[in-house]
Every structure is written in C-alpha cells, then in structure tokens.
Specification:
The chain is mainly beta. It has a five-stranded antiparallel beta sheet with strand order 4-3-2-1-5. Strand 3 and strand 4 form a beta hairpin. The protein starts with 11 loop residues before the first strand and ends in a 13-residue tail after the last strand.
C-alpha cells in the first residue's frame, strides 16, 4: 500500500472529515482516535487514492482544536 510509509502510529492526521491520532494500521483499515475520544475505522480502499494531511511529519506542528 502506497500510503503506509507516510503514516505511522501516533501521527495526527486529517482525512475526509476525520481528524485524530492514528492508533492502528493493518491490511484492511486505518484506525483513528479523534480528539473527542471517538474511534474511527477507515477501510484502506477509501484511503488509497484520497489525499490526507499528516501533521506529525515535521518536528514542529500546529493543530487547532475547537471546543
């Protein structure tokens, strides 16, 4: 899968309205824990061709969280 080298466990990502910390990556899905503690399981078929933002790829990141 082409996206796996770009995402690691504990990365903070934004993907198609989902935003949170990556808690799991496997052959079938990507697991994200959102800021409100909701867990999302996103099938890899949805992630392969879709763009995403990874805020954890640089040593300095800015994430804005609204309450």
């Amino acid at each position: 899968m082409s996206f796996i080298p770009n995402i690691q466990i504990n990365d903070w990502i934004v993907f198609k309205g989902h935003e949170g910390r990556v808690t799991g990556i496997n052959l079938r899905s990507l697991n994200i824990l959102e800021a409100d503690k909701n867990a999302d399981v996103i099938p890899n078929s949805k992630t392969i061709d879709a763009p995403f933002k990874n805020f954890s790829t640089t040593s300095r990141s800015k994430v804005t969280i609204s309450y």
